[in-house]
Design goal:
alpha+beta, two-stranded parallel ribbon, two-stranded antiparallel ribbon, about 30% strand, elongated
């Protein structure tokens, strides 16, 4: 059934953050898709090495991800 892949920069999210993200994404998908989709959906977080991801004209680094995460 559905599999959701989430890509994040390494070192930005704690283990607790990643667990919360995974369960929240599966829950949201299940609510949106209906039926028994929540029980049949998997998700995985892929951590991308700092400097191995570009967004627009910037190469993303862990420090940038942390700054975005902590900007409240």
């Amino acid at each position: 059934m559905p599999h959701i892949a989430i890509l994040v920069l390494e070192g930005v999210f704690t283990e607790e953050d990643k667990e919360r993200i995974l369960l929240s994404v599966i829950d949201a998908f299940g609510k949106a898709a209906g039926g028994k989709m929540k029980d049949n959906t998997s998700a995985r977080i892929h951590e991308v090495k700092s400097g191995s991801w570009a967004f627009g004209d910037k190469v993303m680094h862990t420090e940038m991800g942390l700054a975005i995460k902590n900007d409240t």
